[in-house]
Task: structure prediction
Amino acid sequence: MSMRRAAALALVVALATTAPAHAVAPPVPRDAIEIDFRTGGDERIVEDVVRPYQPLELTWRADAGAVLLLWLADADRSLVLHVVTPSGTRWIEGAQSGPDGLRLNLAESGVHRLLVAVSADAARAGKAAAFRLRMKLLR
Result:
């Protein structure tokens, strides 16, 4: 048997007898929270904690032409916002609201999705973050 063939056979045996790596399962997805602006006024406050790779999803129904105002507050500013339109387009990725908030002019009617997520850098560091999100829908 040639040296090359013996080395290849040794590699195959070593790989076949090596224990598999222990992968960590991804976190269980959280259930979406539906925000109903049709009852109880046009403003809502959501307070929660977001963990790495486990965003909080909020959904709401709105008509085209409505304006959504968002104010996100978290102590370390490690959270970001992602917005998905009713047609499934990822409209906003990784936004942070400033002191005056974030103004979204909604161009589509239907159910919109907002994800509050830990930023990539903070997620790699394993940081969770408590937040307060104020939402106001102007029709």
